[in-house]
Specification:
1 helix, mainly beta, about 180 residues, conserved putative lor/sdh protein from methanococcus maripaludis s2 fold, five-stranded antiparallel beta sheet, 10 strands, about 40% strand, Elongation Factor Tu (Ef-tu), domain 3
Length: about 180
Amino acid sequence: MSSSTMWSRAGDILFRIADLSVVWVLADVAEHDLALIKPGETVTVTPRGYPGRTFTGKIGLIYPVLNKETRTVRIRIELANPDGILRPNMYADAVIESSSGARVIAVPESAVINGGTRQTVILDRGEGRFEPRAIKTGTQGGGYVEIVQGVSEGDKVVTAANFLIDSESNLKAALQSLATAGDTK
């Protein structure tokens, strides 16, 4: 008998058979998004190994412990795996379809000018007049951004070419400051 031959003894586990018709996807959710999710909500999962395939599942569990280093909480998504292509330890991207049901003011992402320290939208005041308005944003998804503060229902927000308006106002401000500097000499 060679040393490479392996023998099993009575009671040894020879195989583990796992039912992979339903798999769990473990995802980390940022602490500030926890109030937006709950068990039973729909999640769309795209495995990185199959970028064109998406799977739909539900949040089965929100774990009770916060990871203090990443400020995230782990959730368990239960996902049907009818073709058996999902395997343990695969990576995937998950999108949680969450909604509080409350009405909010939202604008397309293209309408928000992100200036780093502040966010602005351009309001259309009619007759070719525009007004920049500082805003505070909330949640975003599906190409829209919630406006928490700064815009009221019924305000007309510029959703296209706002970068041109912003650039033009920056140009006017720069020219004005040059003109003012020239007057002081």
